[in-house]
Amino acid sequence: MVLRRSARAATRTAQQAASSAVKRRYSDSSTSDETLSKRVKSQAASRSVKKVGTAQGWEQKRNKDDQTKSIKPDSPEVDDEAGAEKKWKSWSAHATSTPYPNFAHPTNRECQLAYDILYKLHNDAVEAEFEDTNTPETIPFVLDALIVAVLSQATSWSNAKRAMDSMKDTYGSMFAYNQIHAGGPEKLQETIRCGGLHIRKTKIIMSILDEVKRRYGRWNLDHLLDATDEDAMKELMSYKYVGPKSAFVVLGWCLKRNRFTVDTHVYRIAGLWGWRPKEATRENTQLHLDAVIPADLKFKLHFFLIQHGRTCVACRGGSKDTKGCEVHKEVKQQLKQKPQGLDSAC
């Protein structure tokens, strides 16, 4: 098992290095080959322990929906430094502790049991996903990871990939920031229309590119690789429309920090399994689970839960199943048993 993982990690390292070399031809990044090589190796090591309507009326409706639909809860309007500070303070109040100190689940043992069961079910699928050099977990540059996080907001990963592929076709690379910025918002809107919410996401991407270039004179955020979690979160959330979920995604994908991100699948399963209060928002659920899930389980457990949310009859979105999740049943059954290694005497 260890040898197989090592081989896969080595393969991913080589793929990332080749892919990143292509990205650097299009991007305005000044990251050196030596720095990139060290970073890719570090990432590989950390992973070894992720009917189209054609009528004009339909297109008009789709455009209208895209303009009015909001991306929640990760797109707060922030117009100035005071607004950014307010957004930061709201999140950081529970940055290192759960907002639900009297809510007892999940326990460490619940997390470990769920991890062990889900590993048997989904590890092969998750490892296969990691083989894809376009998967977010393999992105080595911080700004690139942030742009992918924006494209993946409020949509499925398949839709996000459609938008990314379209950007590659149009600009030569989805990270060709000179070409994207020079082409203007209308061109980008048409390019990422296939991914949904194209007007909204264009606004966010252009806003980020404008602000990064204004602050640093280039499109590069790689200084955050050496920042503390708090400093990285504070800067990422200082960008207009970027909230804690997108910032957490970048922390996990690119900065390789042990933080637990809650997407739609994880939020839904947390509710079904009793891992969050019923009234908890996704943002507060993320704060809660990040605080209580053991650090060594966070990375893979996140991907296992996503895969489970896609495939489990009881846990997937819109399910009408009344029998319940077999994994959750197994966890509850094992919780009734005495943990192995404990003496029978009290």
The value of Rg in angstroms is 21 Å
- The DSSP helix count reads 15
User: Largest beta sheet, briefly?
Assistant: none
Order of helices and strands: HHHHHHHHHHHHHHH
Overall mean confidence score, pLDDT: 80
Shape: globular
Helix content: 55-70%
Q: Total number of β-strand segments?
A: 0
Distance between the termini: 37 Å
Spans of at least 5 consecutive residues whose pLDDT stays below 50 are 1-13, 21-26, 46-73, 75-79, 342-346
Protein model, in words:
It is built from 15 helices and no strands. It has 346 residues and is mainly alpha-helical. The radius of gyration is 21 Å and the shape is globular. The N terminus and C terminus are likely disordered. InterPro entries: DNA_glycosylase, HhH-GPD_domain, HhH_base_excis_C. It holds the Pfam family HhH-GPD.
Q: What keyword list fits this structure?
A:
346 residues; mainly alpha; 15 helices; 62% helix; disordered N terminus; disordered C terminus
What secondary-structure arrangement, pairings included, does this model have?
Layout: H1 2-26, H2 33-47, H3 56-68, H4 81-92, H5 108-130, H6 142-151, H7 157-171, H8 177-192, H9 198-216, H10 229-238, H11 244-253, H12 264-272, H13 282-292, H14 295-311, H15 326-335
Explain briefly what this protein structure is:
The protein is mostly helical and 346 residues long. The protein has helices at residues 2-26, 33-47, 56-68, 81-92, 108-130, 142-151, 157-171, 177-192, 198-216, 229-238, 244-253, 264-272, 282-292, 295-311, 326-335.
